[in-house]
Amino acid sequence: MTSNGIDDRIDVRGPRFGAALTAVVLAAVLISGSGWLLAWQALVFAVGAVAGVRHSPYAWLFKVLVRPRLSAPTAFEDPAPPRFAQSVGLFFALVGLAGFAVGAQWLGLAATAAALAAAFLNAAFGYCLGCEMYLLLRRATG
Fold first, then answer.
1. What is the pLDDT of residue 1?
2. What is the distance in angstroms between the CA of the first residue and the CA of the last residue of the chain?
């Protein structure tokens, strides 16, 4: 709950759906070497990091196309850890874009592969590396 009494928790299935779409996009980047496709994913990460995960394009797709076909959610989470995870994804996407831009294809592919590994873990197993990093940082900083 926020300070004004409004529940801002999110359905855990939304970020997992977003991770699945992210994994598909990042796999396509690895296959095609497309900097433009990675730029799209960077934009998606940026929206999720800045505006919050419930405002990302993939969250909109979940809300409009998927959520109405599912039963009521039974598990919710604080949006802060997934938002932080979007920031981590954005970092890797920007490193990948920089690699592609300066001709260091290996860097673009390596950064994309790292982001893909994290997205796949979330999509397939519900394990969010960025969320875990957020929780570790919160514990370390009090």
1. 47
2. 20
In the numeric block, which tokens belong to residue 92?
A: 């890797």
Q: Tell me the C-alpha distance between 36 and 25, whole Å.
A: 11
Inter-CA distances, 12 with 38, 87, 96, 112, Å: 25, 18, 28, 24
Q: So what's the pLDDT on residue 7?
A: 73
- Cα–Cα distances (Å) from 133 to 23, 61, 84, 94, in that order, read 19, 26, 8, 19
Q: Are 91 and 47 in contact (CB under 8 A)?
A: no
User: Using an 8 Å Cβ cutoff, are 41 and 93 in contact?
Assistant: yes
Q: How many CB atoms lie within 10 A of CB 2?
A: 8
Enumerate residues 6+ apart whose C-beta is below 8 A from 33: 100, 105, 108, 109
Give the per-residue pLDDT at 6.
58
Model confidence, pTM? 0.93
Radius of gyration over every alpha carbon of the chain, rounded to an integer in angstroms: 15
Residue listed under structure tokens 């957020």: 134
